[in-house]
Design brief:
- Helix content is 55%, strand content 6%.
- It has 4 helices and 2 strands, in the order ββαααα.
- The longest helix is centred in the C-terminal third of the chain and has 21 residues.
- The chain starts with a strand and ends in a 19-residue tail after the last helix.
- The mean pLDDT is 80.
Length: 95
């Protein structure tokens, strides 16, 4: 299956994320082994982008929430909890 975001084909998941967010994920997540100077520059660039586009946080949160919702079972190895034998229990406290 071919995936397009805003007219551009995303060949890898990394390309899809970058096209969906409009920025490379490394800008927000950092990269292993970055120096403190590189981290400071990356965070300054991120602040500048957010200052120019304050709605970006909402869009990113929406994309992340949808991805988690759609892929939660496989991400977190979630299995349905079996119903208790004997049916539902009465949960009222007894004095």
């Amino acid at each position: 299956m071919r995936i397009f975001v805003d007219g551009h084909e995303a060949v890898t998941i990394e390309e899809f994320i970058e096209l969906a967010l409009g920025t490379p994920p490394q800008l927000w997540l950092g990269v292993e082994g970055e120096t403190s100077e590189e981290r400071a520059a990356r965070l300054a660039a991120a602040r500048d982008i957010l200052a120019e586009d304050p709605q970006m946080v909402d869009r990113i949160s929406h994309v992340a929430a949808r991805a988690i919702e759609e892929h939660a079972p496989s991400l977190f190895n979630i299995l349905p909890f079996p119903a208790a034998a004997g049916g539902p229990r009465d949960r009222r406290a007894v004095a």
